[in-house]
Amino acid sequence: MSVSRRQFLKAMGGAGLVYAFRFAPAASSQEKNYDTLPLDIGDVECVETILDLDYTEWIAFGPDGKVTVFTGRTELGQGLKTVITAVVTQGLDILQGKLTVVQGDTELCPDDGPTTGSSATKYVCWGFWLACTRIREDLITRASRSLGIPLRDLEYSDGGVGLKGDRSQRKSAYELGDGKAVLMRIDPNTSRANDMPYVDLGILNVNGRKIVTGKLKYVGDLSVPGMLYAGWLTQPYHPDLTRLRTAELSAAWAVPDVKMVEVVRGTVAVVAERYNQVLKALDAVKAEWSVPERPEHLDLEEESRARARLYEVKEQEGNVEAGLASSDLVVSETYTTQYTTQAPMETDTALARMENGGTRATVWVSSQHPFMARTIISRYTHIPDSNIHVIAMPLGGGFGGKTSNPVTGEAAMLARITRMPVKLVYSRKDQFKLRGRVKAACVIDLKTGVSVNGRIIARKIDIIHDMGFGTTNTYTIPHVSTKLYHAEWPFGRAVSRGTSFVQTCFAVESHVDMIAAALGIDPLEFRRNNVQFQAFITLLDACAEMIGYHNALPSPNTGIGMAIVNHGGSQLGAVAAEVEVIRSTGKVNLKRICGAFDIGTVINRNTTTVGIRGAITWGIGYALHEEIKLDGHKIETVDLMDYHIPRFSDMPPVEIAFFDNYQPGSPRGCGEMPVIPTIGAIANAVYRAIGVRFYSTPITPQKIKKALQGF
Amino acid sequence: MAKQTFKLDVNGRNYTVQVEPDEPLLWVLRDDLKLTGSKFGCGVGVCGACSVLIDGVARRSCCVHVANVTQGQEIITIEGLGTLDNLSPLQQAFVAHTAFCCGFCTPGMIITATALLARNPSPSKEEIVEAMDHNLCRCGSYINIIEAIESFIKERAGGSAE
Fold first, then answer.
1. ipTM of model
2. What CATH number was assigned to the domain covering residues A219-291+348-425?
3. What number of C-beta contacts closer than 8 Å exist between A and B?
4. pTM for this structure?
5. Taking CB atoms and an 8 Å cutoff, what residues of chain A touch B53?
C-alpha cells in the first residue's frame, strides 16, 4: 500500500461521490467488465484496485457543489485545462468557479500515460463529455430511489437532481453519494452522447489572466527554503561518444557561494546559491574530452544507407514489382530531411527536495509524463517510486521533448548528494545538445507507377530513420510496399510536434506533385482522382476555394502548392500555400496559407484556432528555416541565433476552415496534424513558382540561390 | 566578485539587494524580488522572454547587469502592468484573443508591445511586426498576438474618439 494512494484518498477527502472512468473501447465478451464492483472510496485497497484496473480519470463531488476532476495528463499549452473545463462545466451544468482541475500530480492523479500525440482531446476530453451524460443518468436514478419519485418526474441541473420545474425537493450529487466509487468504462469513439449536444460556448483560456500577469507558475518560478541552483558541463560531443579525460575544478571552487563541484555521471556538476554563480563556476572548469574516433565530416545520406537495416514492413499489399512493371509511367525519387529539435521556450527545469533523511523526495517538473518522471527519478536516486512525489507544473512548451527528460532525475540526484533542495535549469545550449532531442534526418526513396490516365497503380517507399507514419490511408493504391529501415546513429529519433509524419509527408506530397507534372495533370486534379476518401476532396476543394487556386493569375516567381495528410487514421487535413520566390536573394515570401481540417467536433474554437495556427507555424519552420547542423558527432547549432524558429516576420496571413465529414460527431484532436501538410504545400508552391524541385528540407535561400544561379 | 548593495525601483517600489555587480537583472527580479513573471529562455538576449521596461524602453533583463541599472531608473516588469483582478487593457486584449498557448513568452511579448505602444500609439501592422520580431514564441501564437495588439489599438482609438 503506497503512501501516495493515501494522499489520493485525502484529496478525495470529503467527497460524497466519486466516479472513476476508463476511456477505452467497449469490453469484448471475454474481458471482464468491472463497472459493477462495489468499492468504498475511504478504503485504500479499493482505490488501489480501481487504479490497477486502469480507471484513470476521476470526478469527485464534494460538499457545497464543488466538483474536482483528476487527470494525469499535463498542461503543455495545448489548453487541456481549458478544454476539460469547457466540457465538464457544460456537461454537469456547473459554474466555472465550482470546478477544480487537478493535473499531473502523482499523489493526486492516476497515471494516464504521456500527454502526447494529440490524444488528450480525442480520448480524455470527449471521454469526460460522455462521462457527464452518464453521471447525470446515474444521479437521476439515485434520486429516484432516495426520494421515491419516478425517474420521469426528475431532472438533473447544476450538480444535483430535483423535481422538474420545482427546486424544493432537490438533492445534490454529494447528498446522493453513498461513500462508494462508481466505475464506468466509456468508449471515447462513441460519437453521440445520448441527446445532449455539445455546444462550443467559446470559453477563454482558463489560465489566461495568470499568463498575462506573469502569475502562472512554471517549475522555474518555484522556490523552497534553502534551495540551490545546479548546472552541468555540456559535453562537446555526443555523450555516448566521448569521455571526460581530465577536469581541473579548483577555479570553479573559487567562485563565491559554490557548494559543490564534482564529476558526476561522466561530466561535471556544479551546485551554487545563484544561477549566475553556477554558470561562472562551469565556465571556470577546465575539462579535456576524448575525441570520438569517427571522421569529423560525414555524409548523412551515404552514412545512413551504409548502416540501414530493415526493421519493419509497414505496408504490403498486392504485388508492387508487378504493379510498377505494368504502369505506363514510373517516377523514382529520393528525398531527405534535416535534423530538427523541439526548442521549447522553457528549457528543461526541475526542482527537487529530499525529505525524511533522503528516503523520500518531492520533485516539481516540467514534464509531459509525470509518472515516467517518477520512474526516472527512482533510477537516479534509488528511492522507490512509492516514496517519490512528482508534481507536474504547466509546461513552457514540450512538443514531445519532455516525455522522458532526464532533468527530473538529475535534479533529484544532485539534491540527494548535496542534501539541499536543488533547482536544475538547463542552459539553452544544454537544451540543444541534450541526447534524445534531435529529430532524425531521414532518407526516403519513393517509386510510383501510374497509368496514363492519372491513376496510381503501385508505390514503393523505403524509409531510413523514420517510423513511416503518414504513408497510409491517403491515396487508393492497389500495389503498395512501405519498408522502414533503421541505421545506428547517435543522434536518435526524438519525437517532436508532428512526429514522423513530418518527414514522410514532405516526401510523399512532393513526389505526388512530381508525378502529376510528369503526367501533365494539374496536381489538385491528380489528388482528387486518387484520394482514398471523399472527405479529402471536400478539404482540397475548400483549400482551393480559400486560396483562389483556379482564379490565380500566373505571375512570375509565384506559385500555389497543396498537400494532404491522414494523421493517425482520424484527422484529415489539406493545406494550400502561396509563395513568391525572390530570385536575387533566394528568399521564399509566404503570401498566404489556407488550411482545411476534418477533425470532428471542435470543443473550444478559441484554443483550437491558436493551436492550429501554431502548428502551421511549425510547418513553416520545418519547410524553410529549422536545421540542426552536425559536424560529425558534434551538434554545431546550439543557440536560438543559429536555429531559426519562425518569427513574427515569417508569418503570412493564415485562413482555416473546419469540417466534420470523415468520422463525424466526436472530437479527434489537431495539435500536430496541421504541421504536416504545411511543409509539402510550401515545397510544392516553390516548385510551381520557379520550376525547381527541392529534394531536401529546409528549403533555404542558399539552396534556392544555388539552384537558380548555380552558386 | 564581492557582493555590493544596489537600490532598485521596480514597479514603483524601492528594493535593496546585496548581489555581485555582474548579476543579471533577470535573476535579481526572479530570486531576490520574487517577481517571476520575467522568464529565462536563453540567457543571451535572443528570445525576449525576460523583457522588462527600463525607463519605458523594453530591455532584455538577462543581459543587463544589476550594476548597470542606474539609481533612479524605473523598472517595470509584467507584474507592474496589471493584476489578476485589474488587467491592463493590453493584457485584457491578450486574454480576449487567446494570444498564447503555453504562455511562457507572453510576459515578454506584453512588455515589448507596451513599449511600442508608448512610443507609437497607432503602429501599422508592419511596425508591430518589426517591433515584436525579436520576441520568440515556439507555440506559434504570433497571429493571435498581432490580433490582440491591433484590437487594443482600435479600442483605444474608439474610446478616445468618444
1. 0.98
2. 3.30.365.10
3. 190
4. 0.95
5. none
Q: Kindly report the CATH number that applies to the domain delimited by A300-339+438-709.
A: 3.30.365.10
The alpha-carbon gap from A9 to the nearest alpha carbon of chain B, in Å, equals 30
Query: Residue A343: closest CA among chain B residues belongs to which residue?
Result: B138
| Helices B89-96, B142-161: crossing angle, 10 deg rounding | 130
Inter-chain touch A78–B101, beta carbons under 8 Å: yes
Residues A564/A474, Cβ–Cβ less than 8 Å = yes
- Give the pLDDT confidence of A173-228 residue by residue, as tens digits: 999 998 788 888 888 777 665 568 889 999 999 999 999 999 999 999 999 999 99
Q: Kind of pairing, strands A587-598 and A349-355?
A: unpaired
CA distance B120 to chain A (A): 19
DSSP characters for A238-279? -GGG--EEEEE-HHHHTSTTEEEEEEETTEEEEEESSHHHHH
- Whether residues A214 and B98 touch (CB distance < 8 A) is answered with no
Query: Looking at CA atoms only, how far is residue B154 from chain A in angstroms?
Result: 19
Clarify whether residues B8 and B72 are in a common domain.
yes
Q: Is B99 on the interface with A (CB under 8 A)?
A: yes
The type of residue at B36 is T
Q: In whole angstroms, what is the distance from residue A305 CA to residue B38 CA?
A: 47
Q: Are residues B154 and B95 in the same domain?
A: yes
A90 φ, ψ to 5°? -75, -40
Instruction: Return the residue of B nearest to A222 by Cα.
Output: B36
C-alpha cell of residue A354: 529530499
Using the beta-carbon criterion (under 8 Å), do A648 and B30 form an inter-chain contact? no
Domain end residue (candidates: B80, B102, B136): B80
Contact A207 B38 (CB under 8 A): no
